[in-house]
Amino acid sequence: MKKILAVDDEKDILFTLEAVADVADLNMTTTSRGLKALEYIKNNNFNLLLVDYHMPDINGLKLVKEIRKIDKNIPILVLTVDESMDLAEKFLKAGADDFANKPIKTADLISRINLHLNFNESSHNTAEKINELNIPKGMTQRTLAIIYDYLTEIKKSETIEEISKGTNLAYQTVHRYLNYIADENLVEVKLNYGKVGRPIHHYKLK
Questions:
Q1: Which of 69, 81, 118, 150 has the highest local Cβ count within 10 Å?
Q2: Cβ neighbours for 202, distance < 8 A, ≥ 6 positions apart
């Protein structure tokens, strides 16, 4: 059984997460304290972490940074009601892998947890391509491979929203990784202009 640590200062949220774990057949440890979470991580082998932003002793951003000093590879999902790109960028740079929005939706959260728990190895070609890249601090090969594999499979242009839905990664996560992939000249970016509003970006692997 996979082991998960959940850190949140709201008892109701922890109760909900424990219920989700029961449904998904996961072994979940919970705590409302970030410093206690660091103790757990040092003394246990968890498969995935769920981290809240607001906590009384240490905020989630600082906690993610401290976790990455202990374990550089464990998947970290951030629980947040704030979907701002600025906050997402800070968390991703700190080392978070993805996001799960509050209020918690059981099916969506289980699906996102399973995505990160069950992703083992990407294709040989993807692994070779990613190993050639100088991935920035805060990004993970695992999340990059999920997006790259998806783009390889679909072989067509899609928007960030479509890629987010197809990979089951949060919009903020996909946005940052696509910007990086575009900077590395690995995708074609097409702009579709409507009658009003900003142009819509479409991404396709080269």
A1: 150
A2: 157, 158, 159, 189, 190, 191, 192
Instruction: Please identify, in words, the CATH class of the domain defined by 3-118.
Output: alpha beta
Map out the domains of the chain as residue ranges. 3-118, 124-205
Cβ neighbours, 10 Å, residue 16: 18
Local confidence band at 122 (pLDDT 50, 70, 90 cut-offs):
low
Distance CA 120, CA 44 (A): 21
pTM of the model: 0.84
Check whether 158 has a pLDDT greater than 90: yes
Helix axes 160-167, 141-154, angle to 10 degrees: 110
Contact at 8 Å (CB) between 144 and 177? yes
